[in-house]
Amino acid sequence: MQRTIHKVLVANRGVPAVRIMHTCRDRKIPTTAVYSTPDRLAYHVFMADTAIHIGDAPPINSYLNGDRIIEAALASGSNAIHPGWGFLAENADFAQKVIDAGLIWIGPQPDVIRMMGDKIQAKEIARRSNVPTIPGIENVTSAGQITDWMRDQDIAFPIMIKAASGGGGKGMVRVDTPDQIPVALAQARSEAKKAFGDDTVLVEKYIEHGRHIEVQVVADEHRHVVHLFERECTLQRRNQKIIEEAPSTLENDLRQEICVTAARLMRRIGYTSAGTVEFLFDPATQSFYFLEVNTRLQVEHGITELITGLDIVSIMLDVAEGKPLPIKQLDVVPNRCALEVRLNAEDPKTFAPSFGKITRLRTPLGPNVRVLLGAAEGEDIPPYYDSLFMLLMTSGADRADALRVMDRALTGDLRIEGIKTLAPLLLSIIRHPKFIAGDFSTKFIEQHLPELVSGFRERTGEDEMLRVAQYVAEISALGPQSWM
Predict the structure, then answer these.
(1) How many domains does the chain have?
(2) Entry pTM
(3) 51 lies in some domain
(4) What is each CA distance from 172 to 164, 167, 239, 257, 387, in whole angstroms?
(5) How many alpha carbons fall within 13 Å on the CB side of residue 110?
(6) Are residues 336 and 450 in the same domain?
(7) 232: which strand partners?
(8) 125: which of 315, 356, 366, 451 is 20 to 30 A away, CA to CA?
(9) Which residues are catalytically annotated?
(10) What pLDDT, in 10s, does the model give residues 53-91?
(11) Are 11 and 21 in contact (CB under 8 A)?
(12) For the segment 182-229, what is each residue's pLDDT rounded down to a tens digit?
């Protein structure tokens, strides 16, 4: 059924809100921003055509307050809601409330979100769809269950205990020895309960030196499903992605197999809109295993846009209006390589949050650089939300090209003062010989952190002042120079 989007309320803040507003501006669709009290002067608020205050700082009172967001949409004359990523993006109940309020939900159907949000159910569906899954056991409530499963299936350590609901690395605990099982199980269940309100956990064999490969898929209401090839999301810290690239370094035959498998699964579950199928790749056996389906726009979707020339958010708007996909599978021909780094307000040595005012912000320029800002110079990075405030992407004819541009972007024009960021660490990573050679796993940062940290020194405002002082001292000592 054809529908027309007249105005979009973006149920998010920062980087995701700004990203969606960019496409809405391209399509001449007005937008509504929502904001909490500390975000009243935030970048996304000024980008929107309308802005509505929805509550105090804690997310439960603002960005997680679904009823208040729907009220804001109705009050602002918005007839559609895009959730971005994070907050309510994968909340099936919120999606259903949006639809029940007579608004257009820009995302997959609520029943699909609910089905894929349960990792146990999602894994079973993948299994029935002939998609390889990691050996595991579900609904674990005791250490004895884990011990019996390992013995019966001849499973060796390490193993991973994971929350059945949610994602983002929360409720995941690695176990290396039998005596760790009881404590790890209790920890995983406790974290799962706090993060997702559900302490159900599953246990899986842990793949050593695994690589994280995800396939971007778009689908419409007319049963058309198209994959936009894959991304490499292996570089992580604390189970959170930090650097992504597209395409991955997989051999072409394997690339085709994993992408077709992802599209087949999404067709099987009746998926619509944009979504991602995540896999764990085992280089030792050249095997891949299903991990989960992300029923939303991914942070790293921009690098897929760079290599395909497509606007994934625009496709989501088309699908929400009931239109068929604007592309067929044979139309999607990647002809570039792209890289993304996440600029978080964190100490690059410890990953501790670094909140405060951005006193100086200069973003990289030049060919093949794409910057997505979620905050502006002079803006505060509040302690209540995710610390991501900038996505920096580069592209090139091949991977080496994209890496060279990223090196230039991180060392050239980029200047951030007032807060600490991951920029020095990101630069150390992209210059590391093993990363350049494509020899890395999800444990790369963990294994090389001391070496990576030793390779950088943060530039601060004090450094700038010292240079000025040195210049003044030299002129004072030597007197006026001929070039002055």
Answers:
(1) 3
(2) 0.87
(3) yes
(4) 10, 9, 8, 28, 21
(5) 13
(6) yes
(7) 213, 245
(8) 315
(9) 296
(10) 999 999 999 999 999 999 999 999 999 999 999 999 999
(11) no
(12) 999 999 999 988 888 889 999 999 988 899 999 999 999 999 999 999
